[in-house]
Amino acid sequence: MIYSLARPLLFCADPETAHHLAFTALDAQAKFGLARAWAGVVPKKPVTVMGIEFPNPIGLAAGLDKNAEHMDGLAQLGFGFIEVGTLTPKPQPGNPQPRMFRLVEHEALINRLGFNNKGVDDALPRLRARKIKIPVGVNIGKNAATPIENATDDYLKALAAVFDVADYVTVNISSPNTKNLRDLQAISAVSKLVENVVFERDRLISLGIKKHCPIAVKIAPDIADDDIADTVKAICERGADAIIASNTTLSRVGVEAHEHAQQAGGLSGRPLTARADRVLERVVRAAKKTPVIGVGGVMSVADAQRKLDIGAALVQIYTGMLYRGPAFVGELVRGVKLAAR
Ligand SMILES: Cc1cc2nc3c(=O)[nH]c(=O)nc-3n(C[C@H](O)[C@H](O)[C@H](O)COP(=O)(O)O)c2cc1C
């Protein structure tokens, strides 16, 4: 209700300014435990995925809290887990502004932020000192300046940095805003990358730093239908613990006439729902026993429920929260029903 009053004001500002204003307000409320009020009563709906116990299956997708700066407030909203990042080994500014556009009539966003982030080392003290009880995944990527042939080095550096503070680590090879990044989804490239990442994870475990650090791989919704099964099979066979399907899309189907439709970047929100669900279906089928995290176009309880019914073990949201507001998280947790597994 209150968000329906605040939203028009926030939407007067450009999306990045609105983002900062919203987080300033959330952080201030969180300091006094007041952000909890947005959530209402959040029932426990525990699920165990990748060997981790999640208090409920609704998570925050990567990109909203890139630098792990707002975890307290986000946890108070009722999330069962949050994924911070994408973090790259070195800090980088991302693309020039403007780089984020609202397509309000479509409840959508187009962004080409380009992994603007302060770098892994900056986030580590906050991740290490966090007091929140929910799992926190750390999404890692490559720096824009790193040639694609050397991408593995960046993922290994980022993994080694966050290994002891992440409940799970996501290998992001699906952002459309880093040149050639999505080439890493080619079967031979993804096989090699996942093999290297899993090998490094196992090496770190063997040092006794900690016993468990699942690796998830996040894919794009634009992989051709016929290639999805082989891509997913390759990822699973190389030892990934989960697949996240999916990132934003390059497609503009359904929004072609919008003034921002031709902006470069990834589209998220309502126009992504159907495609993300279709991809999810194929991914779940190909992943067999490997769990899948469903993301893309969750704008209602029914959207989240459909992802769970398709077979997602967990669901993440991003754009839906910008349109529905902070109370959306609690609404989703209350609304979804977990199948007996
Ligand atoms: C502004 C914006 C920034 C994003 N940044 C990242 C990112 O840094 N890393 C990542 O893996 N996904 C990123 N995403 C993708 C989301 O995590 C999610 O996969 C996608 O938006 C689809 O979900 P949605 O329709 O609920 O937004 C970003 C999305 C948006 C809208």
What is the element layout, followed by pairings?
Elements: H1 2-10, H2 15-31, H3 36-39, E1 47-49, E2 52-54, E3 58-60, H4 71-76, E4 81-87, E5 100-103, E6 108-111, H5 120-129, E7 136-140, H6 151-162, E8 168-172, H7 187-206, E9 215-219, H8 225-237, E10 242-245, E11 266-269, H9 273-287, E12 292-295, H10 301-310, E13 314-317, H11 319-324, H12 328-335
Parallel strand pairs: 3-4, 3-13, 4-7, 7-8, 8-9, 9-10, 10-12, 12-13
Antiparallel strand pairs: 1-2, 5-6, 6-11
Helix pairs in contact: 6-7, 7-8, 8-9, 9-10, 10-12
The protein binds flavin mononucleotide.
Flavin mononucleotide binds at residues 61-63, 66, 86, 100, 109, 111, 113, 115, 139, 172, 175, 218, 247-248, 268-269, 272, 295-298, 317-320.
